[in-house]
């Protein structure tokens, strides 16, 4: 049984996801304007910027939840500008949290089992073979251990703390084994302890895959991300390492300006 998404052709360090001239207008207002973005395979890449900068809109464009007004998006050498979100997920570009709905009254183990059965349509056939079922359970426990939830495997999702629920959501996304994972504010609403745990988890799952995340918490970005793209008013303001962009006077000004708005 393989739940794995297609393996990417892009080698580590090569561009795996890119946008050119990406633009999104809402009723004539340009939320995203002419964005060129390259995400390299094997990196953790952050999209940051002050409130209203267009981060979530770019995220929704890249994951195909929005259609662009103009521009193109390429994933692993393939033009996905007109490809739907389910198809891009199948190609290996998977957005965490929104796609991986957690069933509150199923246990952690059953939630991960369901996620594992989804891609291969095993829900209708797994009962046929005990061997298949055993393999499914073994893989589910591996994923649960990978996100440090082994001690909660038999708890219902609803009983988990917020940080642990996020870890479960990550496990259900990992069930698809996506080469590229996108996170929209993974640390939102978390306390310091959970932020530390989820950061460590994202760093671990980033080994051997590509991660693009929208994140407000700049110390998380500084700690975790290899590459940072700063957006302001729908346009790219600066790109590079965290050290580079944080030293950029335009970035400082954009953040300061937003505090006074
Ligand atoms: N569906 C929509 N209809 C109209 N305007 C929208 C829509 N979605 C976003 N916008 C506008 O586009 C701009 C960019 O919004 P977006 O949510 O992408 O920014 P953001 O950088 O993610 O902000 P935040 O950090 O506050 O979440 C904002 O001015 C917002 O009001």
TrEMBL record:
This is ABC transporter ATP-binding protein. One of its GO terms (cellular component) is plasma membrane. Keywords: ATP-binding, Nucleotide-binding, Transport. It holds the Pfam family BCA_ABC_TP_C. GO terms for molecular function: ATP binding; ATP hydrolysis activity. Residues 17-258 form the ABC transporter domain. InterPro entries: AAA+_ATPase, ABC_AA/LPS_Transport, ABC_transporter-like_ATP-bd, BCA_ABC_TP_C, P-loop_NTPase.
């Amino acid at each position: 049984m393989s739940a794995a998404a297609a393996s990417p052709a892009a080698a580590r360090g090569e561009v795996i996801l890119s946008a050119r001239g990406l633009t999104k207008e809402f009723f004539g207002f340009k939320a995203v304007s002419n964005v060129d973005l390259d995400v390299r395979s094997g990196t953790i890449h952050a999209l940051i910027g002050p409130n209203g900068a267009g981060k979530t809109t770019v995220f929704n464009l890249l994951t195909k939840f929005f259609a662009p007004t103009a521009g193109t998006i390429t994933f692993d050498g393939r033009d996905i500008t007109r490809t739907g979100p389910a198809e891009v997920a199948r190609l290996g570009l998977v957005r965490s949290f929104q796609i991986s709905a957690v069933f509150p009254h199923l246990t952690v183990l059953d939630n991960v089992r369901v996620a594992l059965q989804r891609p291969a349509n095993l829900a209708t056939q797994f009962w046929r073979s005990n061997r298949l079922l055993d393999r499914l359970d073994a893989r589910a426990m591996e994923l649960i251990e990978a996100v440090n939830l082994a001690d909660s495997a038999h708890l219902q999702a609803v009983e988990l703390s917020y940080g642990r629920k996020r870890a479960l959501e990550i496990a259900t996304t990992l069930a698809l084994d996506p080469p590229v994972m996108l996170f929209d504010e993974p640390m939102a609403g978390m306390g310091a302890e959970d932020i530390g745990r989820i950061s460590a988890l994202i760093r671990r799952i980033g080994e051997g895959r590509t991660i693009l995340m929208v994140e407000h918490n700049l110390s998380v970005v500084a700690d975790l991300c290899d590459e940072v793209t700063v957006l302001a008013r729908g346009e790219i303001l600066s790109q590079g390492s965290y050290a580079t962009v944080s030293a950029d006077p335009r970035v400082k000004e954009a953040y300061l300006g937003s505090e006074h708005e």
